[in-house]
Amino acid sequence: VRPALQVTGLTKHFKTAAGIVRAVDDVSFSIGKGEIVGLVGESGSGKSTVGRCVVMLHPPTGGSVVIDGAEISALRRGRLRRLRTGFTMIFQDPATSLNPRMTVRDIVAEPLVIHGMGRSGDHPRRVAELLDLVGLPHSTGTRFPHELSGGQRQRVSIARALIASPSLVVADEPTSALDVSIQASILNLIKDLQRDLGFACLFISHDLAAVEYVADRVLVMYLGRVVEVVASETLNERAAHPYTQALVSAAPVPDPDEQRSRQRITLSGDIPSPLAPPPGCHFHLRCPVAQDVCRERPPALLPGAASGQLVACHLVSPGTVD
Ligand code: SF4
Ligand code: MG
């Protein structure tokens, strides 16, 4: 079966006054129909840029993006516009992504209007369906974004993202701008909607625990490259890349005994600038087990020990049982 999303050799460079920023460097992955894939990494890892390239907010510098069999990265504007109902994005901060001068019902209905979908007489019924789905009362429809709480606003942007029944949803840090107390309810909402509606989802976050909770598989990015792909349920036990292991060791766990038994791996320094990525393995400046070869050659992303696992590290041989 063809995947909902196939990304191959995706590269994105930005020209800036300081030079060329190599934000995304040869990234490949796919998302199956109805699958949630998490993309995790520090700020500056390129994860948001991958998301924006997937929905064509940024045209890629190289590589291809295929959604439901259509290579959208090769399409011209007119045809891309027609396909745009098939994929959509939920942004980090609903306060800035929602038009403050529009009512909630107009915001939610806007994709139908833009794409000329359905008769406008039917839009109110469809908006009401979506408000039900995201758990907002119908009376919210006549209100403006500033009259709502942050969590309600994010529910509005989710309703808007889903009204045209997309097959692929990219969610970029959908809970990071929200109060900690309501983050879990939005994560659960996205999980429930994905299960009920069956869309494929690329869930982007710097928060490993959130990604592990929501996603079926986790992609770990470091300085523009994917360094590991691993199933969420085996992430804690089977993470094989030293960077992923450091992220896992730093993530809070609910069981305090487990936390104590876990050796915390502290990384020194910040992620280097994508203006001048280090040669070889991009992680070698911070890697606690780096070897000479790591400074010279970039490691390939190769199968690891767990089923479906991929790891880019010279010290992790393909197929070795750890
Ligand atoms: Fe560390 Fe080398 Fe593996 Fe990179 S390739 S993660 S520097 S051991
Ligand atoms: Mg970001």
UniProtKB/TrEMBL annotation:
All residue ranges annotated as the ABC transporter domain in the record: 5-248
Transcription as UniProt keyword: no
MF annotations from Gene Ontology: ATP binding; ATP hydrolysis activity
A Pfam entry, by short name: ABC_tran
Biological process according to GO: peptide transport; transmembrane transport
InterPro entries registered for this protein in UniProt: AAA+_ATPase (IPR003593), ABC_transp_ATP-bind (IPR050319), ABC_transporter-like_ATP-bd (IPR003439), ABC_transporter-like_CS (IPR017871), Oligopep_ABC_C (IPR013563), P-loop_NTPase (IPR027417)
SMART domains (alphabetical): AAA
The keyword Disulfide bond is annotated on this UniProt entry: no
Annotated keywords: ATP-binding, Nucleotide-binding, Transport
Superkingdom of the organism of origin: Bacteria
PROSITE patterns in the cross-refs: ABC_TRANSPORTER_1, ABC_TRANSPORTER_2
Family: Belongs to the ABC transporter superfamily.
NCBIfam families noted in UniProt: oligo_HPY
Name of the protein described by the UniProt record: Peptide ABC transporter ATP-binding protein
